[in-house]
Amino acid sequence: MPSISFITGIILSIFFVNVFADNFVEEHANSSRHPGRHRPPHVIVIIADDLGWNDVSFHGSNQIPTPNIDALVANGIALNRHYVQPTCTPSRTAFLTGRYPIRSGMQGIPLMAGERWGIPLGTPLLPRHLKNLGYTTRLVGKWHVGYYSVDHTPCHRGFDSFLGYYSTFIKYFDHTMRQNNDTGYDLHRDSRNTSEVVRSRKYFTDIVTEEVENIIGHHDVENPLYLQIAHLAPHMGEPEDRVEVHDINEVNAKFGYIKDMTRRKYAGMVARLDFSVGRTVRALKNRGMLENSIILFTADNGAQTLGLYDRYGSNYPLRGFKSSLFDGGVRSSACIYSPLLKNVPRVSNELMHITDWLPTIYSVAGGNVTDLGEIDGVNQWPALRDGSASPRNSLLLTINEVSKVAGGIFGKFKLLKGHNSQYPDFYGNISVTDDVPSYDPTSVLNSDAGRAIAGISNAFVTSQKIIELRNRATISCPAFDQFVRCTNKCLFDMINDPCETVDISAKHPKIVERMENDLRRYNAVLMPQSKSEFDPASSPRNFGGVWLPWVRSNSSTIVSSTG
Ligand SMILES: *[C@@H]1O[C@H](CO)[C@@H](O)[C@H](O)[C@H]1NC(C)=O
Ligand SMILES: *[C@@H]1O[C@H](CO)[C@@H](O)[C@H](O)[C@H]1NC(C)=O
Ligand SMILES: *[C@@H]1O[C@H](CO)[C@@H](O)[C@H](O)[C@H]1NC(C)=O
Ligand SMILES: *[C@@H]1O[C@H](CO)[C@@H](O)[C@H](O)[C@H]1NC(C)=O
Question: Which of 36, 247, 316, 403 is the most buried (most CB within 10 A)?
């Protein structure tokens, strides 16, 4: 990778060799290519961190306009029943493995820095599968599925390159992460045999955008690209300034109508994320890649509105937030755009799960999903492409054997088991507090993404169509006095009661029994959570002030120097 201007110093270098992984890639290379197929598409996956249902404008809120993301919807599909995991590490595990995290002990509380666990090395990840099909694979942004040994880091799990952080989050400007008494840099540029610490004072969302433009700008367009863009935004930073914006004056000028200062800055973080999405689409267009690209946008889980790390995200009118099993925690803001999709634009209310992306992407990349072994995801590509019914009728939300809650979906029904007392309310009801400008569909048409797509599309997207689509993507709930508390079990009708206000379990004992049987079957294969104590050996004090892998692994020799 060419070095770019914001690298101002390299304080540490690591060189390592991994013989086993190299052999793996060679053995499996070319095993599944389809002869005579069209060139495999470029696949760009954009993951927002803790972005709420109500923090994008395509679900009906006027408060934070997201014209670029809305342009993906206006030309693609709003994925309105797309379920994820309630927190970050499990969600990213599900995405990368195509398997429910309970199968590998990755459910529950997210990984903290300095803990010796991660996705087990025997489980191959999406980028490795795609490498086997000839893809160049790149990760920009967050990892957060384990880094205790070099073998667990992105470039040893299938990515050709990585620029980003290993743990939960970093500060937006100085890229440090503080945990208890330890503070260290967590911004690295890795390849398979090199690792550099990147020192910069640039706003992280902009670092991501520049890296993405650089990757796309230098990509050999004859080769298929898998680019995973895992944004920090709009996750909070450190407690002293949770919502760091790239330019407070710009944010005040743009969002002065939002009286609550924290929410206003949150809007600024989301707007910069949306801007990045537009620049990404434009970069693809500029290289002639957009015609053969698939762009998926999703949040990893719902917004966290209150409590520890609050930062005024909103999942309204969905109930609950990040880490709860109510829809505010597990039903993500998501959409997909590709010129390969037919019957677009549309709002899809077909059931999807984050594990579905592994077989879906692998299949559209030309692979045979039987190569993927035992997975929970199903190939959604034909349904997405044609607008046909989802092959999925049920899913496991999760089982948390520590907090003793579980949940699943079967058709229109959702079952929650256990004491779902964590964040059970409605939060972020922003509907009345401010004098918010009305939605402007021309800003969608004129956004970077809107114009880039219009340049290659035959579809005629109008303001009127955008408004109609947005109305169809908006969830509203009938008036109600009180919603039910879920302390033992609750059954909801998610089509007629998407806000989860009425427990109908007493009316449908057979459905409840069937769904409880499903949960029991999953419980039988559950691997207990891998959660471990902080290992003091991981402290940045031992590594020149940097969070780094600290456990030696069989296949890697780490030589570190502080040159
Ligand atoms: C942090 O340092 C303080 C003072 O040395 C100590 O009392 C405290 O136990 C430390 N906390 C942790 C989590 O290590
Ligand atoms: C890294 O590996 C590549 C290919 O195996 C090799 O060409 C390059 O010289 C190596 N770089 C370093 C710094 O060892
Ligand atoms: C996928 O692989 C399976 C098992 O090897 C094989 O039976 C099937 O025909 C393959 N499908 C396609 C479309 O190649
Ligand atoms: C949200 O606020 C509106 C306006 O005050 C109110 O009508 C509605 O009942 C609120 N919703 C909830 C779930 O509190």
Answer: 316
Q: Which residues contact 391 (CB under 8 A, 6 or more apart)?
A: 378, 379, 380, 383
Is the pLDDT at 433 greater than 80, yes or no? no
Q: Please check the confidence at residue 559 and state whether its pLDDT lies above 60.
A: no
For residues 396 and 522, give the distance between their C-alpha atoms in angstroms, rounded to a whole number. Answer: 8
Whole-angstrom distance between the N-terminal and C-terminal Cα of the chain?
21
Cα distance between residue 250 and residue 365, in whole Å: 41
Whether 499 is a known active-site residue: answer no
Query: From ligand 3's centre to the CA of 370, what distance in Å?
Result: 7
Collapsed DSSP state (helix, strand, coil) of residue 453 = helix
For atom 9 of ligand 4, which residue has the closest CA? 479
Phi-psi region of 158 (alpha: psi -120 to 50; beta: other; left: phi over 0): left
- Residue found by looking up tokens 């495999």 in the block: 40
Among 536, 550, 532, 535, smallest CA distance to 108 is for 532
Nearest ligand by distance to the CA of 501: 4
144 is catalytic: yes
Distance of CA 89 to the CA centre of its chain: 10
SS3 assignment, position 559: strand
Could you report the per-residue pLDDT of 27-45, keeping only the tens digit for each?
333 334 444 447 999 999 9
Q: State the ligand closest to the CA atom of 533.
A: 1
Torsion sign across C-alpha atoms 289, 292, 298, 300: negative
Amino acid at 419: H
Distances in Å between the Cα of 74 and the Cα atoms of 63, 78, 281, 292, 393 are 19, 8, 14, 18, 26
Q: Which of 42, 144, 156, 235 is catalytic?
A: 144
What CA–CA distance (Å, rounded) separates 318 from 498? Answer: 7
Q: Is 253 exposed, middle or buried (0-12, 13-18, 19+ CB in 10 A)?
A: exposed
Residue 263 C-alpha to ligand 3 middle, in angstroms?
51
What does pTM read for this prediction? 0.91
Residue 478 CB neighbour total at 10 angstroms = 8
pLDDT confidence of residue 250 = 98
Ligand 1 pocket, mutate which of 112, 179, 180, 538 (most atoms under 8 A from CB):
180
Ligand 4 test: best mutation among 61, 431, 484, most atoms within 8 Å of CB? 431
Q: Answer for the pair 303, 51: CB distance below 8 angstroms, yes or no.
A: yes
> What is the enclosing helix (H) or strand (E) of 196?
strand 194-197
What letter does residue 399 receive in the DSSP assignment? E
Residue 547 has pLDDT above 90, yes or no: yes
* Cα 224 versus chain centre, distance: 21
- In the predicted model, what is the mean pLDDT of residues 5-17? 31
Name beta bridge partners: 176. Answer: 185
Q: Find the DSSP H helices in 413-494.
A: 441-445, 448-454, 463-473
Mean pLDDT, range 448-464, rounded to an integer: 92
Q: 303: which DSSP letter?
A: P
Spatial contact of 251 and 265, defined as CB atoms under 8 Å apart: yes
**Alpha-carbon span 56 to 165, nearest angstrom:** 25
Domains present along the chain, CATH in parentheses: 39-524 (3.40.720.10)
